[in-house]
Design a protein that fits this description.
Elements (H helix, E strand, L loop, with lengths): L2 E8 L5 H14 L5 E8 L5 E3 L12 H4 L4 E8 L2 E8 L2 E8 L1 E4 L10 H9 L8 H8 L1 H10 L7 E5 H6 L1 H11 L3 E5 L9 E3 L5 H9 L4 E6 L4 E10 L4 E9 L8 H6 L15 E2 L6 H17 L4 E10 L4 E8 L7 H4 L6 H19 L14 E4 L2 E4 L6
């Protein structure tokens, strides 16, 4: 009997379309003899849909007109099993049973632990990092604070909220200037290079900050690394075991890897292949010592943030000083970073199989832990006018 895998994608996020590309890539490469794959699409209005039609990327070019053919659904737990149910008024009919949830989502409201929290509440085995790892990986400020507490190398930075900037923009600008330009201004909780500006001149700082504020309440400003080389390394595993992929050197037409480089680089009229289409050199042009340093740091970052499944850890290197800095993790990376594993001999199908197997194994291990007590301390108590009164003793 095939394992029923619910692949969840989309969501109310600026990385909505990127998620669709990543998910449909993964579905196409899964072992269809081993897995019965159920697409679950979260529309931009947060409505969940399922249906075979969702496997065709053409559907998403004008989903508003076509959504009437998809099936609105909800995920529920019933008698220890997990079902997608058709949502229609007060009545719900089971569409299919699921064994595993596989979120392939990017950005706020989904990748940041929000979706994982919902799936954890349902109780279904889930691929990838849990609530804590997902949240830490999404927030660039808290992530840096965790890295600093572990003495892991990061660039100098300042951060602030949009309200703080509205009240004291001059003070914040002065703090940024103390870092020394150039700097990179980012929304703190977005990915895919959305809302990011490389700033070389003081006069451009206010505009860059306003751009970032359009996307997020929290802003981070990082000191730019001179003589920059960007490299990425993917990690597969959990808290107990990690393995690393080949390392890539990413190439950009700008001062950093932009959204255009990542997802639109194929040119007008060409279908995007997500991060798999970005310009890169594999393996990265770094020496053996630095290769080992990057891989070791990737595993340390993976464990520090409580990550699981497949993640991509991004690095910044000053090629003159040979200094390596952790940039950020991608808890659900674009294209699931399959292109970094293929040079190691691990095909995309095998990578996906490893991720699902790891999720099931982790689920079984967690079932051995104690989460609730069989005894009910409320069974001997009644509610009185002054609160709970014990009929068999006092509540301690």
């Amino acid at each position: 009997m095939r394992i029923k895998v619910g692949v969840i994608f989309g969501g109310e996020t600026v990385e909505h379309e990127v998620s669709i590309i990543s998910a449909l890539q993964a579905i196409e490469n899964m072992n269809h003899d081993k897995y019965d794959i159920v697409p679950i699409y979260i529309a931009k209005d947060r409505t969940w849909y399922t249906g075979h039609m969702l496997l065709d990327i053409e559907v998403y070019k004008d989903f508003t007109d076509l959504k009437k053919y998809a099936i609105p659904c909800v995920l529920v737990s019933k008698n220890g099993k997990f079902y997608l149910q058709k949502q229609k008024g007060l009545f719900r009919k089971n569409i299919t049973e699921l064994d595993v949830a596989f979120p392939i989502v990017h950005g706020n409201n989904v990748e940041d632990g929000t979706l994982h929290g919902y799936l954890k509440t349902i109780g279904i085995p889930t691929v990838g990092s849990g609530v804590l790892g997902s949240a830490l990986g999404q927030d660039k400020v808290v992530m840096k604070q965790v890295f600093a507490s572990m003495n892991l190398p990061i660039v100098d930075y300042v951060w602030f909220y949009d309200t703080e900037y509205a009240e004291s923009s001059n003070d914040i600008i002065k703090k940024i200037q103390k870092l020394g330009l150039p700097v990179i201004v980012k929304p703190a909780t977005l990915g895919s290079s959305v809302g990011i500006t490389f700033v070389k001149k003081d006069k451009d700082l206010p505009g860059a900050i306003e751009t970032a504020i359009q996307y997020d309440q929290k802003i981070v400003v990082e000191k730019a690394v001179p003589n920059l080389v960007e490299v990425n390394c993917s990690v597969l595993g959990n808290y107990a075991h990690q393995e690393t992929s080949e390392i890539e050197e990413v190439l950009s037409t700008d001062d950093f890897l932009t959204y255009q480089d990542k997802y639109i680089g194929g040119g007008k009229g060409k279908a995007s292949k997500g991060m798999a289409s970005a310009s890169r050199i594999i393996p990265a042009r770094i020496d053996h010592h630095m290769t080992k340093e990057v891989r070791d740091l990737a595993c340390e970052a993976f464990r520090a943030l409580n990550l699981s499944g497949v993640c991509r850890i991004d690095f910044l290197i000053d090629k003159e000083t040979k200094k390596v800095y952790l940039n950020e993790p991608n808890t659900i990376p674009g294209s699931l970073s399959f292109y970094l594993w293929e040079p190691t001999g691990k095909k995309y199908q095998e990578l996906l199989d490893d991720m699902i197997t790891l999720a099931i194994k982790d689920y079984k291990e967690k079932q051995k832990k104690i989460y609730v007590f069989d005894t009910n301390i409320l069974s001997g108590y009644v509610m009185g006018s002054k609160g709970i009164k014990g009929v068999k003793g006092k509540l301690k």
